[in-house]
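Data deposition worksheet. Section B asks for the primary sequence of the deposited chain exactly as it was used as input, without tags or linkers unless they were present during the calculation. Section C holds the resulting structure in token form. Section D is free text for depositor observations; keep each observation to a single sentence. Incomplete worksheets are returned to the depositor.
Section A, Depositor: J.P.
Section B:
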Amino acid sequence: MSGSSPSAVTETPDNTGQVEAGDTHGVSPVTPVSIETLLEMVKSYNSAPEVQDRIRDAYAHAAEAHKGQFRRSGESYVDHPLKVALILASMKVDATCLVTALLHDTLEDTTLTPELIEETFGKKVLALIDGVTKIGKFQYQASKVEKQAENFRKMLLSMSEDIRVILVKLADRLHNMRTIASLDTPKQRLIALETLEIYAPLANRLGIGWMKSELEDLSFSILEPKTYQDLKARVAMRRKERKNYINLLVKTANEALKANHIPGQVLGRYKHIYSIYRKMTLQEIPFDEIYDLMGIRIITDTKLNCYGILGLLHSIWKPISGRIKDFIAVPKSNMYQSLHTTVMGPEGVPVEFQIRTEEMHHVAEEGIAAHWNYKENADSLPAEGERKVVAWLRQLVEWQKELPDNREFMDSVKVNLFPDEVYVFTPKGQVKELIKGSTAIDFAYSVHTDLGNRIFGARINGRWAPIKTVLESGDIVEIITNPTQTPNKDWLRSVATPRARARIRHWLKEEEDRQSADIGKKALESEFRKVHKSLAEFLKPPQLEVILSFSDLPTPTLDNVYSRIGFGKVTPLSVLRKLFPLPFETTIPSGGEHEVSSQDYPIVVRGGGKDLLLGLARCCNPVPGEEIVGFITRGRGIMIHSRDCPNLDHLSVQKERFIAATWDSDAGAFFDVDLKVLMEDKPGMLAAVSAAISAKGANITHAEVKQDRRKMAVLDFSLMVRDVTHLETIMDEIQHVKGVIRVQRIKKLTTASQS
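Section C:
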């Protein structure tokens, strides 16, 4: 291999290497074509007569089925599937894929029957056409998340059964984008938006970089035509200005290769328009500050020579620290491999070099199609493609089962279609690919769900680190577990991967169900005791059927009834009233008017009310030592109020929602309280009050000073205290500060707790 003159090609922001949007695979959309054009292209990589006959037969069926049909552009309709097949033939796909391309619109738009297709071309072709047809029914909408997610779930399932389905669909979309000018403007914009948000990222995920670049630029030219034309003109001008510069770099690199007897082809390249636009918007920089519009790609014969060329380049130009990336040792998820280095070129201009073998270059251009098994009796993908590319797709299919919330599902899809990966290692050297921003929690869940659920800490590069530590490429991560550790809602704010988020939500949902069933059962037992009866006596027919009637499952269960009570969807009193159709009176559960046993308290508040279904009401901020009562909200768990909370009066209109509660005697936590201090307005008062609080071992979380109408100073404090005794000690200490007139605890009247 020898050096060559520079040729302009482009790349995407993650440098996967693509051909320029103006260079079309297959043939130009306006070039007249025939079946002979396709057969000649196929013959270049598969000349078997039976393959030629099969493709010719498929075209004949397509031409007959689409006879008399025309596209909006005026061309014969059969030219569309023919040009789709030509795009795929340029990727050297198998005959089954080409036959599918030629017939892909027949099921929906013609009278050609499934039975005839199966009889003539086999079950596999029929299944692929059906899959492409189903994807075609996916109607993208910029809003309406529910419908969009439902359709995308179906699309994923079709894709995951055979990757050739999406290859045909991508080629179909590419030809439609190339010929989109015949559509009205609103339709163009909707198709372009769908292409930019769904199909271009899919092409990238499958490693088909040239297609991703072309789809992006075509979409961008429709969605932002003025910006596109402006950037296109600027890039053309910059290329003209820098032509001699690129030639100098190519010449210098070529001479260095020849002098060191290293085979290699040196090519100049440029970013494509949309990737430039993305860099400008993401980094908020003007066009003139983008210095890596140009770069050099060197294609050699072996991995060893790739690394040798890297060292050679660094001996000529100074490498820029932190800008060397080894995607050969750690390939990207779409199989992309290359060495990247940015050096300080002549005139102080940063220049990126990409170094790869011919095989790596082929994969960077064609992606999964580069690993296709061209033998016509093979219906499955090779292990390489299956392992590195299709795995993420099947993972998405699994996530779509685990993420019932459609908005969250679509968010996870878009996150995975626009990956920005980090590569980290297990202690045994296994590579884990994670989304940028992933933490040790994400890493743990990527290994195993149980490891994630029990993560207590991590050793990152041999040093102890919190579980929320964000990981960087190259980190070696060891997870430390604790059998008593469990996930909590706060973890959801510290994970980046859909897998971790789905597993945490699954655990929280199961735990909420368990806790709500436990609370609901205790609440119902407590209500039965008020009428001097035992719940256990009624858990048999016919009374059992009455209780089960409160379940909302097709097959009713007691746990479901208990859970609905715990979630506030059913009140214990309503169950009693149905069992005993007599007038009942209920009161707010008493905490100190008479002697009660522990079983009279269905709710035990531990550790500051941080259980999934328990929360301390912000209106009164109860603390241990105060009498408390629970209020079952509708679907938000139980809010704990102090017995003297000013909101209990208006909550009492729903008194059947109250539930007895008590403190855990070993709470051992700190609790929020609000204080108001009225004092003389003179220097040093705030410091004196703060010192009094600190002296009693309390932490101030908020402080605000203002002046009332009498020119007195008013201090509003939020503190953390252990219990009511601790609070009283603090208030007494504040009261003894010279100049303090009054200190009082604040409990707010609000209607926010009524739900």
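Section D:
The chain has five domains: 35-178, 234-371, 385-400+413-506, 508-663, 671-754.
The two ends are 75 Å apart (CA to CA).
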